[in-house]
Amino acid sequence: MLKGKIAIVTGGTRGIGRGIVRKYLQNGAKVVLFGSRQETVERAVEILKEENELWEVEGMYPNLTDAMEVENAILAVKEKFGRIDILVNNAGISQGTPLYDYTIEEFDKVIDLNVKALFYAILPTAKIMKAQGGGCIINTSSMVSLSGQPSGVAYPTSKFAVNGMTISLARELGKDNIRVNAVAPGVTQTEMLEAYPKQVIDAITAKIPLGRAGEVDEVANAFVYLASDLANYVTGEILSVDGATRA
Fold this sequence. Notes:
single chain, alpha/beta, seven-stranded parallel sheet, 9 helices
């Protein structure tokens, strides 16, 4: 479904991000994954190449909250491959700090990575995509962008912003043949979830109409669809993959 396409996936070293990278590789894309540290990036690339030595995957580790570092990394990808067809902004952090315990620094950290870093990546990439005749940008949102959450206000605030950025840029960039969408995952079976005690996981999944957490592959499939030609007329959408979970 993505044969020959060049993709960048931020936050691609683990969890949903690595699931997206794997699905893209399985579908014929060449992928450059971005991660926060050299060692985790190199390990992720190593794991993927152990799965299939023919997969074309590389890694980089720019500081996503530094606009110049991000732009230089994206330009390096363009220089090597000649184009960028897909940008997936998946990197982000979540937390559940009660309001009265927040520090300004903690709030800023969430906004910097979950909102400003997306803008830093989109701006240079959109210019490249416009010049080449089009492209696809997919942002990772969250089910809390639709329902909020009872603690940790910075996280849902950031994801509401992701939705606003997605819908607005879809309208602005449509004339340049650049589609912009987002995927809003629900509770997903990642390393982070597995760290919780079973009773906590059971309590969480009991509220999900499908009766279970989502699998990484199930979320990654949405990113494949939105990046593929099957979604050529789909833009400005926030695609929920959450088993109908609602507050």
